[in-house]
Backbone:
């Protein structure tokens, strides 16, 4: 490669000498074998821009006809012109020289002289005078950016050179017009590398991108590089510069909120139709405000999966906030961003914007490194699939996306395709990662005689660990249990000989050998399905409104699936399990007026039935101690509020906020306690509960004391005010008497002596007597 | 019942009924009301419910109210006379009704208006009644006979009216409407020429924001006016100048009512709050918050209580159920600003509330066209906040 360059430059310089002389005219350069990269001191006559300047210069001569510019200025101009001309090919010199006397002639004629005196020194720079014109001055362009070098070209003799040129032309003119080519020769044979020049640098870049690695035949695979790259890589210093050390930014403890003595949780609230965002400590008595900002976000906010960051949305991108004071931690510039997704490990952020996408620079979806703030990779977004388009594996090692007939799995941190290729799965409809291991579940629908298929695949080995064939399938939905212990595939089928859709639940027991599958058949339409987190129960809402029932099932250790309990006539359309399992809230959101049922599934009792009229959202806190129901301004315009309940369904607070929009609990990272420690805590629960009960009593009595105290001061203040007012009132007694002619009206019965008593009786019962024969 | 009225006005006196005064013949008889007599019902047991927030018992007025059906359109204002034996009601129909507050029997009507009646007031000795209407008139009536004593023509609808403390001066304010400004006019009844010539002795122009509610201040030295912008102004009744100006509300002030001793007043505003002010200084004292526009608020004469009436705005009502409209009358403690009771009943927003001067009952008039007289049950009087 180095040879190529060394050879190329002198040769190019030689060739250039020739056309320079033949260029007075603004003709397009003849299309002969010349190469124009500039060598040292090369005249700028080459590019088309340069030739246009020549034209301008040639015409500039007669231009100052009307008003002859000051002599000196003109001289200067003429000088510069002459200079420019002399820099050009010799032919121009004549015309410039000719122009000068003509201009002088005109100036001398009958026009008044505007000439500067001899000793005038013009202190105005040209830049100042004609800045705007000079800006458009043709720039020096050597065209070197448009040149590419192609290696591994077959070495041929003159006899076959023509043919080679044809082939090369065919391949490379795809990327743009080739204005020039050069085939270095040695001993009558080409040297195996060639130079091509395009009309513009963009074409050259395009050619490098697309033709590099082009296989001409078995022996010849093209290597295409930009000519300028050689320069760049040649000048790399041999000495390694030690990168400058980035100062460490101490952001404080990003997890400080976990150290709160009372173990309270935080939540974010957006209200005033999105104008204000607040963070609160959740407290049994009243929420305690931590931070409130106006216009913190333009649309909504999101917490990262472990609660470290709060993401806010802006027209120009995403900002992450955290630490005790909610300082800005990172910014990601993505114009028009609409959706985001965090990797479960909080290392990466995926952002989506419908703007910004260009053909050769994918920017619709960008994956960012949260810690550095750098863009890791951009993707196009062709399909309007459901967000998140990229689904992350539980540990953040892989992420996958589904396109037509393909499943592309990428790995971190390289962001490249796993094993450099996507999986071809024709007809793939949906996929989902196991939350408990690097297993992907996907399903393909029936295709003529081939049954529908649900496949579980281990990654990165791509080993299929379980395939289940299903018949007459209409639709499948994949539901993983939170730990990845079970997978439920909800299968809608139309069995032969029956009408209507039948739903089956195919329960995969992931933790057992061979992954056994059991089937639960449902007779009614399914409204909602949800696994118990950290447990082996699931809840199903089924039936048609208004006859909706909820059933709780238990997957036993031997694989038997048992119906524990069914409640009928439920007002519910959504199931919300507590994050710790066991407790569940069945909610009839929106159209069902916000009916709520709090159920304990350990013995399947309904603890409480309540209602939050028109509730649109239900949010469990991350510990499963509290539930928030809310009426969001986004779905309903009046009574926007959020209510706090205990997990048992006891209403603790009603928080009315003007145009309340959204409440999100701050997630907690997974516990660091081992299973044994948790068990131990559960065993000693009595011991702890005593402490907590005492604490509660204390705070409760304190609270009521505070309340009483507050009321007392309020009452005292009010009494003081009333006393003052009444004193004034008493002072005015005489005036009042005067105004009302001496009648004391201060008390309702103050002039009772004047009254005459009169007895009036009233009807106490009603009797309607028909008045004769009315009809 | 003790009545201040002289023996003459009862007509047949101690008969089973006070005889119908002759002018009642002109009263509009609503379908279904002919030949029937109002009923005094037995008050039902009150319901005690635990307030979920504070755990305190919450008095819900469970008594059966007396329903007054005398209007065909929504009620605009209701007012007791000073003694509380009579209740005046006006509505968006041209009828002005007066009722016996004790049993809800209609005493009669004042006929003459041709448009919606916005306001009503009676003087301290219940001799005169003043009404203002959208038919661009303010009328003075003889309370007892129903005779129209004066007709004051205006250029635009009369929004508020009132007698001063001594009952000698009347005040009314007109709407900014049809190119006319909002004015407050003052007439001295002792000078008949003012009425005859329709020439008020003072007319205060109000250019910025129109007056939506106004009352006389204590001793008739000033009037207190609430504006569409939420501002409160105290105008001198002698010079017309603005004595005090405050802005505590962010939206229109729908109603102003004085306490019995006139030392303080409560405002009801579209900004979902009612506020208590000192009537001399206009100093803000207390705020009572709800989730709906407040149309009216009244102070209890003998307890530190305030009742608020309101609900979702009338124009939105048809689109929502009564349940979401929150058409309840709500009781707040004056000092603690805490709500302690609610009374349901109306199926539209409450437009006007009034406390009986003895504090044992209150009335509410609603967008639904009904006036309800509620008597409190014993629990109301026993209820006390823990303090």
Residues:
């Amino acid at each position: 490669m180095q040879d190529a360059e060394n050879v190329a430059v002198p040769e190019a310089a030689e060739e250039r000498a020739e056309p320079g002389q033949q260029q007075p005219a603004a003709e397009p350069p003849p299309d002969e074998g010349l190469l124009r990269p500039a060598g040292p001191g090369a005249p700028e006559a080459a590019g088309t821009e340069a030739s246009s300047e020549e034209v301008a210069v040639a015409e500039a001569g007669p231009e100052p006809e009307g008003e002859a510019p000051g002599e000196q200025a003109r001289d200067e101009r003429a000088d510069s012109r002459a200079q420019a001309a002399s820099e050009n090919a010799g032919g121009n010199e004549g015309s410039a020289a000719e122009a000068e006397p003509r201009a002088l002639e005109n100036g001398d004629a009958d026009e008044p002289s505007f000439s500067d005196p001899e000793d005038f020194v013009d202190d105005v720079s040209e830049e100042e005078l004609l800045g705007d014109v000079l800006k458009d001055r043709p720039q020096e362009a050597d065209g070197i950016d448009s040149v590419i070098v192609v290696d591994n070209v077959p070495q041929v003799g003159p006899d076959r050179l023509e043919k080679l040129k044809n082939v090369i032309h065919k391949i490379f003119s795809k990327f743009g017009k080739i204005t020039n080519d050069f085939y270095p020769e040695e001993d009558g044979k080409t040297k195996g590398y060639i130079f091509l020049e395009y009309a513009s640098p963009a074409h050259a870049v395009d050619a490098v991108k697309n033709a590099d690695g082009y296989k001409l035949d078995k022996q010849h695979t093209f290597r295409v590089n930009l000519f300028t790259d050689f320069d760049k890589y040649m000048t790399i210093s041999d000495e390694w510069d030690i990168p400058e050390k980035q100062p460490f930014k101490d952001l404080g403890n990003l997890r400080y909120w976990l150290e709160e003595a009372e173990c309270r949780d935080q939540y974010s609230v957006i209200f005033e139709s999105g104008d204000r965002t607040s963070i609160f400590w959740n407290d049994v008595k009243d929420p305690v405000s931590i931070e409130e900002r106006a216009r913190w976000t333009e649309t909504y906010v999101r917490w990262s999966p472990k609660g470290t960051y709060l993401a806010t949305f802006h027209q120009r991108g995403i900002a992450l906030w955290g630490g005790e004071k909610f300082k800005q931690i990172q910014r990601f510039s993505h114009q028009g961003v609409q959706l985001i997704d965090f990797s479960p490990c909080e290392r990466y952020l995926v952002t989506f914007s419908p703007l910004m996408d260009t053909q050769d620079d994918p920017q619709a979806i960008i994956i960012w490194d949260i810690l550095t703030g750098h863009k890791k990779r951009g993707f196009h977004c062709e399909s309007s699939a459901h967000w998140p388009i990229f689904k992350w594996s539980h540990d953040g090692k892989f992420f996958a996306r589904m396109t037509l007939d393909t499943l592309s799995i990428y790995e971190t941190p390289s962001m490249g395709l796993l094993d450099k290729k996507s999986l071809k799965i024709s007809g793939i409809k949906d996929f989902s990662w196991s939350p408990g291991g690097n297993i992907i579940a996907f399903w393909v629908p029936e295709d003529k005689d081939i049954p529908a298929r649900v496949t579980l695949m281990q990654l990165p080995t791509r080993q299929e660990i379980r395939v289940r064939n299903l018949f007459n399938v209409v639709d499948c939905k994949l539901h993983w249990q939170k730990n990845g212990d079970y997978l439920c595939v909800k299968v809608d089928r139309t069995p032969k000989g029956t009408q209507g859709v039948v739903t089956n639940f195919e329960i995969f027991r992931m933790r057992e050998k061979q992954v056994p599958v059991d089937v639960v058949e449902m007779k009614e339409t399914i409204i909602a399905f949800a696994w118990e987190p950290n447990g082996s129960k699931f809840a199903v809402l089924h039936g048609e409104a208004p006859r909706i029932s909820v059933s709780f099932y238990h997957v036993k250790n031997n694989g038997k699936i048992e119906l524990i309990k069914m409640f009928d006539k439920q007002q519910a359309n959504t199931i919300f399990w507590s994050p710790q399992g066991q407790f569940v809230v069945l909610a009839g959101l929106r159209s069902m007026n916000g009916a709520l049922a709090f159920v304990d599934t350990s013995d399947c009792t309904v603890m409480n039935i309540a209602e939050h009229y028109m509730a649109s959202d239900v949010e469990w806190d991350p510990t499963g101690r509290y539930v928030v129901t809310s009426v969001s301004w986004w779905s309903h315009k009046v009574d926007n509020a959020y209510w706090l309940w205990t997990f048992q369904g006891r209403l603790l607070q009603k928080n009315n906020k003007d145009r309340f929009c959204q409440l999100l609990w701050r997630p907690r990272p997974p516990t660091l306690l081992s299973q044994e420690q948790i068990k131990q805590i559960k065993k000693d629960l009595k011991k702890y509960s005593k402490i907590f009960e005492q604490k509660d009593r204390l705070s409760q009595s304190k609270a009521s004391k505070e309340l009483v105290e507050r009321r007392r001061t309020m009452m005292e203040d009010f009494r003081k005010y009333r006393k003052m007012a009444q004193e004034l009132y008493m002072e005015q007694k005489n005036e009042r008497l005067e105004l009302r002619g001496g009648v004391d009206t201060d008390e309702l019965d103050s002039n009772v002596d004047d009254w005459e008593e009169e007895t009036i009786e009233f009807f106490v019962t009603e009797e309607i007597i028909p008045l004769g024969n009315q009809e | 019942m003790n009545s201040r009225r002289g023996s003459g006005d009862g007509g047949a006196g101690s008969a089973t009924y006070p005889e119908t005064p002759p002018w009642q013949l002109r009263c509009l008889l609503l379908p279904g009301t002919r030949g029937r007599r109002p009923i005094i019902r037995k008050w039902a047991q009150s319901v005690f419910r635990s307030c979920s927030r504070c755990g305190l018992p919450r008095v819900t007025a469970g008594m059966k109210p007396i329903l007054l059906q005398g209007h065909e359109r929504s009620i605009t204002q209701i007012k007791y006379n000073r003694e509380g034996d009579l209740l005046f009601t006006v509505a968006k129909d041209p009828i002005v009704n007066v009722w016996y507050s004790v049993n809800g029997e209609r005493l009669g009507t004042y006929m003459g208006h041709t448009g919606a009646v916005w306001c009503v007031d009676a003087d301290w000795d219940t001799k005169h009644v003043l009404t203002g209407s959208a038919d661009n008139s303010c009328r003075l009536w003889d309370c007892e006979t129903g005779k129209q004593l004066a007709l004051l023509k205006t250029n635009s609808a009369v929004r508020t009216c009132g007698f001063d403390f001594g009952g000698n001066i009347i005040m009314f304010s007109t709407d900014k409407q049809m190119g006319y400004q909002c004015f407050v006019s003052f007439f001295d009844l002792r000078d008949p020429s003012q009425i005859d010539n329709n020439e008020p002795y003072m007319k205060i122009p109000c250019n910025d924001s129109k007056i939506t509610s106004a009352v006389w201040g204590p001793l008739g030295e000033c009037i207190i006016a609430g504006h569409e912008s939420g501002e409160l102004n105290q105008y001198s009744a002698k010079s017309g100048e603005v004595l005090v100006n405050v802005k505590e509300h962010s939206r229109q002030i729908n109603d102003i009512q004085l306490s019995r001793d006139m030392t303080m007043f409560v405002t009801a505003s579209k900004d979902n709050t009612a506020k208590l002010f000192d009537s001399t200084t206009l100093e803000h004292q207390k705020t009572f918050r709800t989730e709906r526009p407040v149309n009216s608020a009244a102070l209890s004469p003998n307890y530190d209580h305030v009742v608020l009436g309101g609900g979702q705005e009338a124009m939105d009502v048809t689109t929502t159920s009564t349940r979401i409209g929150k058409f309840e009358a709500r009781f707040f403690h004056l000092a603690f600003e805490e709500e302690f009771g609610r009374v349901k009943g109306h199926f539209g927003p409450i437009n006007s509330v009034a406390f009986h001067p003895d504090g044992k009952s209150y009335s509410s008039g609603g967008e639904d066209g009904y006036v309800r007289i509620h008597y409190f049950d014993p629990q109301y009087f026993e209820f006390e906040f823990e303090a």
